[in-house]
């Protein structure tokens, strides 16, 4: 009998959402306990700041350039080997409960198994997971969670947020006290909300296993991704009127213009609505129209969802103890990407390589039997490293196709691994507008090179000294005194990026 692996992910959770990372709004004692007993990574980056590319990296251990899922709507090919396949071939039982999103949600059921499996009454096997039960953060109609509600609780369906409007686009409908976009307290009992359901289904699958089986379970919560629609019974957990505005919230169009003036033009274009370049934000939505109270209410509902996630994690952790597995289970917690939440006056996510989207919560609580000392690791790590870490936990060799390294358990080990950098990519095409960004974080610098596109010549970019300017307010890209540093970072970026997969995978759906 070996070590068991519980991977917990959220969708669109910021690094600073958690108490252990300085968060002051949501109460997250269960997740904080993982950090206090394990390894908390203070500079973990994703390899892409949207769902499908980030999740493809988690499950393959590959850069985006290698696995080829270059934007949302591009499916990871079914023949792609995953870390679930690898663990299964070494005797592990495997399951994914919650959000997968390796295939487009808005794609046809004929094209994508994830969109037809619940309707067929099936739970896999798929992508190396012998068991899958899927849920999303809105009712797209085809997940196992949706079928559960339709079958057993149809009375709650009319009150759910209509995420897609009559044009097939993201909705801009708002609610709550401030009519903030996609704030929507839902008349659904807490035990029927998808956060509770994911934990319940995780526990149920674990209970199909015998005591001596090794397992890899991915418990994947759809929240705190918008819409911000937790059960209305929970809205008094946090008084939105008492939620502080983000430190990077400009508060006025004049201050926003000053904050964005040195950034490439799609930043200000998003803020004032003059340039729509980002399907991750609803078409027609202008962040400049948000009021301070709306930002407060959005963040309050976001953190209510974070508290519900923390309590669901606590339920599953208690069940591990009940089953006698606590001492032999490694728990890893992370998110696929973050959320702007008012930083720079912006909302949602997109082609912006900033801390709000790129810097992630990442915590590893190793099996207590190993007596590994708790630590905070400040050297750069990434989603790229998860697959090899799972192999290390399982005591097996890693497959030849992974590109990361085992997560270090201390800064000393990180330095011995010669960890110097982490890379994040972005590519998007929406109608006539395309954007392509490649970033390297190295030695406290963040350098983002803009490749040639419909908006840019390929000479633009962003350069920040995060030691002196952690909020990324002073773009040094054009500073003559920084040209040598910039050139070295761009050279390192080009040298460390793997070749781009060819031919390029087809985008078959919006998201």
CATH homology group: Alkaline Phosphatase, subunit A
Straight-line distance between termini:
40 Å
- The CATH class name reads Alpha Beta
Which bin fits the share of residues in helices?
Answer: 25-40%
The CATH topology is what? Answer: Alkaline Phosphatase, subunit A
The unreliable regions are: none
How many E strands? 17
Relative strand content: 15-25%
Main sheet overview: 8 strands, mixed
CATH architecture: 3-Layer(aba) Sandwich
Order of helices and strands: EHEEHHHEEHEEHEHHHEHEEEEHHEEEEH
Q: How many domains would you count in the coordinates?
A: 1
* Strand line-up across the major sheet: 5-4-8-1-9-11-2-12
Number of alpha- plus pi-helical segments: 13
Query: Helix- and strand-based class?
Result: alpha/beta
Q: Radius of gyration in whole Å, from Cα? A: 22 Å
Residue-averaged pLDDT: 97
Overall 3D shape = globular
